[in-house]
Amino acid sequence: MVITHHGADFFKVSFGDTTLAFSPIGKDSKLKPTRFGADIACISLEHPDCNGADQLSHGDHEPLVIRGPGEYEARNIIIKGYPTTSTYGGTELINTAYLVTMDKMLLLYLGATNSKELPHELKEALDKIDILFIPIGDQGVLGAADAYELAVSVEPKVIIPMHYGDIGKKDALATFLKEEGETDNHKPVDKLTVKTRDLDGMQNQIVVFT
Hints:
By secondary structure, the protein is mainly beta. The chain is built from three helices and 13 strands, in the order E-E-E-E-E-E-E-E-E-H-E-H-E-H-E-E. A hairpin with a 2-residue loop joins strand 2 (about 10-15) and strand 3 (about 20).
């Protein structure tokens, strides 16, 4: 599995010939969108910074677009969406957290949530999360301290903070890493290549993207 970050909450996750995108930046966003072909697009929030599925077509190939809570299956990937809340953009919106089983790994993508409490149904479904994507930028999503508290409570093997840098509070990442107490030990990466065996023995390992 290869994970790359494309700004804000936008991630590309690829394995084999399958590509999944989370929260692609739309053409009407003030943020810079990235175009690439994807097989599946998971939209967490109906906001231009998060709902750019139209940026993911390739030739005649259109991605399967998943918007909102429910259970989905495509290309041997199982996706379950759970409703949470967000005030990103200044109004209260439904945000969807996605629990994704792919490449023998379990991913939890929290989107633009501002809630420290996970939905009861999602809590019941959690089991040995391999990779957690969590917003940390405040301003309508989780702040850094609350995000860290929630992240370690889930006990994932890898934690990927998002919603910082070009979005959210400027000091969000520094504050998040300060919560861990290891501010100088996280060299940013431009991509994360991971196999199930790489995760053995890991817990709450923070990976920072450039």
